[in-house]
Amino acid sequence: MYLNLMRWSVSSNGEGLAGTVGWWLFALALVLVLVVALHTYLGWIVLGLFLYYVVRPVARRLQQQGVSPGLSALLSLGLIMLPFIAVLGVFIVLLLAELAAIEATDVEGLLERLFPGLAIDTLPTSETELYAFVEALRSDPTLATLAPLVSGFVGTFTVQAFNALITIIFAFFLVRDERKIASWFRSTIVERESNVYDYLKAVDQGLASVYFGYTLTIIVISTVAVIIYNALNLIAPPGLAIPHAILLGFVTGLISVIPLLGRSLLYGAIVLYLTVVAYQTNIRYIWFPIVFYVVMGIIFDNVIRTYVRPFLSGRLFHTGLVMFAYLLGPAIFGWYGIFLGPLIMVVTIQFLRVQLPKILPD
Predict the structure, then answer these.
(1) Under a CB-based contact definition with an 8 Å cutoff, are residues 223 and 207 in contact?
(2) Does 308 lie in the same domain as 180?
(3) 82: how many CB neighbours lie within 10 A of its CB?
(4) Same domain flag for 77 and 106
C-alpha cells in the first residue's frame, strides 16, 4: 500500500509539473497573440498609460474630497487632459513646421510622417500640381474636384480620432478602477510580501515620478518658453527676432533635464547670436539681448527652479538617464518614444535596483 501511495504521489506531481509547463506555454502564446494584435496600437497604449499617471494625483485628490471614482476620473480627463492633448497636438504640428522651415524638406515625406496611411498620390505636393489643382478648382468648384483632397485627409483623421478616443477611454478606466485592479492583482496574482509585488510597486513609483514629474516639467517649460519667445519677438528690433521660436522653446524644455547648465548654455548661445546680429545691424539694438537674458536667464529660470521643478519633477532617477531616455526614445520608436523611452528606462532601472540583488548568488 505504501508503494502504491508513492507511485500515486510521483504520478500526481509529474502531471502537476506537466500541467504547469503547459499553462505557461499557453500564457506565452496568449502574450504573443496580444503583441501581434496590438503592436500597431503600442504608441496609443503607452500614451494612455502616460495620461493615467498624469491624471492619477488629481483624481485621488478629488476622491479624498468625496467625489466618486467615476466622476473624479471624468473630471480629471475632461478638465485637464483634453485641453492638454489639444495644446500638445498643435505644438507638435508647429514644431514639425519649424523643422521643415530650417531645411528643405520633402513634402511627401513630411506628410507621410504627419499622417501615416494618407493617400499621398491623390494630393498636390509640388508647385506644378498645386497650381493645376487651384486652376481646376477655380474653373470647376465642385465636390468632384475636392474629392481627392478631402478623401485623403478624412480617412486619416477618422482613424487617428478613433485611436485617440480609445486612448482616452483606456486612461479613464485605469483611473476609475485602479483600486479594484490593484486589489484583484494582490489577491489573485501576487501576494503583498512577494518579490514581484515589491518590483511592480517600485515600477509604479518610478513611472509616477517620470511621467508626472519629468515629462510634465518638459512640456510646461517648452510651452511657456514658446510663448515668451514669441512675445519677445513682438518687441524685437527689425532683423533681431529670435529665430525658430517654437523649435527653441521645445529645446528649452528638453534641455532642462540637464542639471545646472542645461538652459544656461542655451540662453548663452541665443544671447551671443542676438548680440552679434545687433552689432552687425545697429549697436543701439543691444538692449534686446539684455532684455532676453533678464527675462529668460533670471526671471524665467528662477521661477522654474523655485516653483515648477520642485513641484513637478521626481528625484528617483539620475537626470542623465532621464535625458537619454527622452532623447533616444523618439529617435528609436518615433513620436511615442517620448513616452515609451522613459517606460523602458524605469522598468530596467527598477529591475537592477530592486530585483537583481535578490536573484544574484551570494
Answers:
(1) no
(2) no
(3) 12
(4) yes
Number of domains in the chain: 2
Indicate whether 200 and 126 sit together in one domain.
Answer: no
pLDDT of residue 138: 57
Which residue is listed with cell 483632397?
149
* pLDDT score recorded for residue 11: 45
Q: Which residues of the chain have pLDDT under 70?
A: 1-17, 80-157, 160, 257-262, 309-315, 362
- CA 162-156-153 angle, 5° bins: 135
Angle between helices 195-209 and 42-64 (to 10 degrees): 90
Amino acid at 188: T
The predicted pLDDT at position 10 comes to 44
Specify the pLDDT at position 25.
86
Q: What is the pLDDT of residue 99?
A: 58
Give the helix ranges, DSSP H, for the chain. Answer: 2-38, 42-64, 69-76, 82-102, 107-114, 127-139, 143-176, 178-188, 195-209, 216-235, 245-254, 262-281, 287-292, 301-303, 309-312, 319-333, 337-350, 356-359
Cα radius of gyration rounded to whole Å, the chain: 27
Burial (CB count <10 Å: 0-12, 13-18, 19+), residue 73: buried
Interval 248-265: pLDDT, tens: 888 888 777 665 566 788
Q: Residue 301: CB partners within 8 Å, gap ≥ 6?
A: 263, 264, 267
Closest CA to 206 of 314, 278, 101: 314
Instruction: Report the alpha-carbon distance of residue 210 to residue 216 in Å, rounded.
Output: 9
Which residues form the domain of 304?
A: 191-362
